[in-house]
Please model this.
Amino acid sequence: MRNVIRAGLVLITLALATPAAAQETKLQVHGYLTQAYGAASGGTFLGIPEGGTADYRTAALQLRYTMSSADQFVWQFSHRRLGNSPITVGEPELKVDWLFYSRQMGNLNLRVGRLPIPAGIYNEVRDVGVLLPLYRAPYDFYLEGAFTSETVDGIAAGYNLFADAPWNVEVSVFGGRYDMTNRNTTYDTTGTPVAYTPEMVKVDNALGTQLWLNTPVDGVRAGFGASRLEAQSGSFAGKWSEWHSSLDARTHWVTLQGEYRRFAIPDVNYTAGYVYAGVHATPKLTLHGQMEFSDVQLTDTPGNPVFDFDRTKAFGASYAFRADLVVKTEYHSTTGHWSDAPLSPIGVAPANVNYFLVSFSTSF
Amino acid sequence: MLKALLLLIAVATTPLAAQQGYVVIVNDANSVSSVSATELSRMFMKKLNRWQSGLDVVPVDQPESAAAREAFSAGVHGKSVSAVHAFWQQQIFSGRAVPPAEKASDEQVIAFVRSTPGAVGYVSAGASLSGVKRVQVVR
Model:
């Protein structure tokens, strides 16, 4: 961590000292914050306990140094609290989210450093409350902080094909490495699950792509992405592959979204998806409904059994005082194996945990 | 009757942008005399970065509270100011682009466009355009 911060300071200092860039220098600061209060019934879900918690937030500060119209450095710090969720145990209070150099060459964009992974509708912005319909991006699909990463240490390129045509394609590719947290179950000597424990995993040789087909209808697009990686340690060490598809339609009155993904992990296939509908009742008030699912197939077990891993329904409302000031309230009903408590790994009956969140999001 | 006819002709021949409360301007040295609303929108969304002459496009915006900004957003982007704001939030927080620079008044926009060869901006329909060139917005 310290090395990354030092490297960032050096890069910014070098950039500031570059004489050729001095006449065009521009440092911009952006940030976001979402603060929530949540309470659950029937157990604890993603750090939301029955007694309620306000220790639930995401925040980030972004520094962007523009050297020219084509060259930028971007440095973003972030902070996240999910109550006492096991997936954030060991997570620092402040971490370097991104640190990358970006160069635009016509329709081609190149980025090098620690950078956001383009994957699906929300991966790059999955902590930005003002851009999310509900508190978090759909959990079954995006797996906030577990088994996935928001960023990669490496390189990414983006290109807009047929940029001037009504139908055009945005293509992104990325490669590199990252660390991710997996959620592992600890059992006692009798085989009874006793705790969920985070498992830090180093990922190498990550390679992926994301394509968006933009249609002539403004706000309507379809996406497809795929990736592969090598987990170097942990319960699921080995080669992983993944693909996903997305539909995203945002109109004046209604937003409709759906995404589907499939992971092939050593010994496990994980399939997940969701559909979301938002009705913009007024320019400021939006009503939300969402259904998520995930299934797990054990590929190392005779018969390759498939389990309903999670089924979640959510509904809520948000009020945008301004585009950068949003208040949300939402209710989620979950049945499955994601709850922190009761412990319900596969083989144990699924838990039914319901929770609500009230949150406030802002950005600048 | 004649007056009404003349008024009708005057209104019909007034560029659409001016009728809607804004005028699009470029640097005097820019050879462009008209631009389509689609191209203009792409310039302000930073999706079209070069003029045909090869010059870099440098869009300059007005504050979100400005009447000209509201008219420009509706007329050129076909979106509300807050929808355009949301687009830029998505761009900023996915690590991509940042919005065009904002100038606080018509005078500041004009001064910026006057001094920047590839600049394109918009000002209130009644603003005094000295040292910059007005371009027509074509649908």
